[in-house]
Amino acid sequence: MLFSFLFLFAQLAFGFLVFDFFDPQKRFSHFERVLASVLLGGLFSGFLVLVLALWWQSLSLAVLVFISLSLPIAAFRFLKKPSLPKINLSGFYRHFSRQNIWVVFLLALMVLYWLLLSTVLFRAGGGTLRGALVGWGDIALHLNMIERMATAQPFVIDHPVAAGVHLVYPFLINFISAIFRSFGLDIVLAFQIPLFIFGSLSLLLVFALADRVLRSKNLAILALILVILGSGLGFKVFFEDLQKGYQRNGFIGLSTILADPPHEYTHLDNRTGGKPAEKDTNDNIVWIVPVISFLSHQRSFPLGLAIFSFLLLGLLLYDQDRQFWRFGLVAGLLPLSHAHSFLAFFFLMASLFWFFLSNWKAWFKFGLLTALLALPQIIYLKAGSQVLSSGFIRPWFGWMTTDSNPFVFWSKNFGLVFWGWLLVLVLGFVLFLIPRFRARIKERLSAEFLFASLVLFILPNLFLFQPWPFDNNKILFYWWLLAIIFGVGSLLSFLWQQRVWGKLALISFVFLAILAGSLDFAARLGRPRNSNSHYYGYSDSNKDKVASASWIRDNTKPNDLFLTSRDVDPLSVFLAGRPVYLGFEGWLWTEGLDYSRNRMVAESVVAGDLKKACDEKIAYILLDDDLRRDYPRVDEKKLLEKTQVVFASGNRQILKIACQ
């Protein structure tokens, strides 16, 4: 555990060490400097340790070398020339007034967000793991990945639930968790530390970005609230539920609805799962409130958003500067951090380039440096994924539209944010055509970023970028971000400058724009953790499985391959870090991976063809009821004749395959 915290400290020190390279003109504020330094420390240290671990085939050696080099260098650098920002907190407290009320709201948002993150994965009574239903399966994949990378010896990057298949999932945040886990940190802490750090950074950097654009911390707070809690028209169903509750049981019925809402008001459909079946509806509202959908169980997304926001800050401060190319060192690390953020950033920069031709040389250097770093990662991802090679990118109109025309679908999913953005877009264009308004429009609106937001809205509504259409929302989120900060933010600024009617309109707009999302957010925070309908357990809750995993850890090699059931949490990898030949196929499909060969081989092996098992380097078969359920053709008689039973507990046996 000591080495885990030494590594964390080394990451922070390394970030402050390298930050000055990206801000040679000292244009970042002290607040932005601290946020960026923490981000850069986590990002660069993660990649450096990854490269060293792959080179030396040892994760522990790579981490020790990084700590041994980074801490002394950072100490020497800070002793020679201290560069930590000096923030006068006493002066801030002394002059605190209504002008600083934004601090209270920002802290409140952060505390509420941390409470949300604490519900993603936690230990219930008896110390067993439990995860929120909306991300229960995703969390299992992350835990499988963390355990696998933490225990691999020699160190390799392989898919934890599909032998011989590329790990095409952007795994950097899980790799950082694996570092903490490899030094003995509890799996929950190892899971949470990077998520809390990068999640907090993503929110704070979005706030800093909005503050730069809107030039008002109060408006920046409103923009941040819209980004994370903005939602569609699902509140209409909420009012219908209230009416039904009142008709059934008066005010008691109302209190029942408020205490336990019968629906998730930003997730009103029957196709995407992630909620109890009784909450399904036919409303086709699938834009789940972003703080839950993107910034909690999608572990790589907070890291991607933090990087994206930092790059946008750099763009605002250095877009016309010759030093802009330096930010390519960060942009080039996006593919393995979060691929959809990289794709969205590519669309953004391709849209903006034509507005910054006067600085084309710096932009060209930026693009070249980004490509040099990103291409090896893209080639690696492309080699294993049909999404990038040829399979799934195709025309696909309207994202998840099925039951109505696109404008109705967009309206009920994106709500007032969509119409506010559209109003600014159309009105800004019309007024720009009128000479007397042109100068004012240029001053108030960022035409280049509004154009980029339009591109980021159109593309995921015209093309499918993932096997599962729902996943296009990961690109749409960046339209959402730009639309709020550069579009809706201007509308809010205009309303705030008006008299009472403007302020009332602003309050009404924000209230209705976040109502459905706030209801779902509050329901998630208020949900009891012992609720079996919202929080699910994993294989560690079964004592027999824990005993089997303990035997596996003590008696098998770290890279021994197991043939198991196709559950989300096969115990050999989930609890012991050993790779499995074929796990949950849903993940592999959404990643665009071809697992059909693994499926056919597994069917043959459980039927008794152990020669194929040896050819595939399968060392053990985990024979239990889960395997029997997933492979009805299992021939236990043949398997027991040709293998050695090395462990048995209840109806579970571990069979060792003797290969010559």
UniProtKB/TrEMBL annotation:
The keyword Cell inner membrane does not apply. Keywords: Membrane, Transmembrane, Transmembrane helix. Signal peptide: none annotated. The keyword Metal-binding does not apply. The chain crosses the membrane at residues 6-22, 34-55, 61-79, 100-122, 161-180, 187-207, 219-239, 301-318, 338-357, 369-393, 413-434, 446-465, 477-497, 504-523. It comes from the Bacteria. This is Glycosyltransferase RgtA/B/C/D-like domain-containing protein. It comes from Candidatus Wildermuthbacteria bacterium GWA2_46_15.
